[in-house]
Queue: 3 jobs
Job 1
Amino acid sequence: ESVSALLDRLGDAGSALRRAEAQQLFAEGFTRTRIATTFGVSRQRATTLLSRGHAGTQPSRHCANRSAGPL
């Protein structure tokens, strides 16, 4: 497996963990603003983390680029 593919998988796993953590904090009563502060991101980014948690994981950039076809 190439280093690029491994890095993509590692990034995907990190993103999934971050989404799961945000979901758990939200379930415990944290506001989106407090989650944003905890993660050091904007409130809009915290909202994105929460909404993607409901939709499941997103494909990695590596896989998404491969399936996009010619430009």
Note: Residues 36 and 43 are 5 Å apart (CA to CA).
Job 2
Amino acid sequence: EQYASANAIANYARLLVSEGRRTALSGLSAESITCQAVGEAAEEGDELSREIVQRAAFYLSVAIAASPVNR
């Protein structure tokens, strides 16, 4: 949840934008950078948004693999 929740995705995107990373999200206000906005930008080909989604997917897959259900 720390890395793959909707809030985590939005917060990470806001952090990267505040650090000056180039992205389609750069023109949005901090409040407008949501998980949905990241997903839409990723679908439209924004590289940074794709990286954010891939990062979340990685951490989600790690959490699922480590789940007691899978043992």
Note: The radius of gyration is 13 Å.
Job 3
Amino acid sequence: IFFTGYNISRKEGLVFVIYYMSYLSFLFLKASTVASMQLLTKMAIAFIFPLTIIVLVTLLFRALQHHRKNA
């Protein structure tokens, strides 16, 4: 949000919704002490954390390019 001029694009909004659904799933599984909590933890390590890094690096790279182009 901070890199894109305080606007959220559809793609960024989708990423936020995915994070929110993942967080709700985590809370639900933690409260119910289901054995699938390990599966969600593995999914977080395998998909959610790398997705976060990729999105942040991409947004930072685009913001820096835009800043250099307009400077």
Note: The mean pLDDT is 79.
